[in-house]
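**User:**
Everyone, produce one record:

**Assistant:**
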Amino acid sequence: MATATFGAGCFWGVEAAFRKTPGVQATAVGYMGGQIENPSYEAVCTDRSGHAEVVQVEFDPERVSYEALLEVFWRSHDPTQVNRQGPDFGTQYRSVVFVHDQDQRASAVKSREALAHSGRFRDPIATAIDSAQTFWRAEEYHQQYLEKRGLAQCHW
């Protein structure tokens, strides 16, 4: 198994997109990239902890490539938005790929550059590519939030 971590706005909808991807073995929503240990949802929502809402994806590289997961990521949000997605705003909603090794970094950079030159978006791609840090699992009520409630998507 391998691990990938993505921040693309509200983690509920992003997790649902990855859970539908063949080869994904497990997902968990949580927080990464901040300055405090073991943050709560309330702390992250202050926009002062520095964490992004993320989805950590455990996947079988024999069944799905990291590059295919990047495609799911790009389709799951608007990567031109800075610190927001739809009606949600704040640094916790930033677009970010947290890479776990140099191969992931190279793939993420190449994928971002290809998207930037594709003509798909008029505005520049704002997605950051950062080294993975400690993953802090979000509170249990956030895990598989949409699925547990029979919802197909968030508010947009």
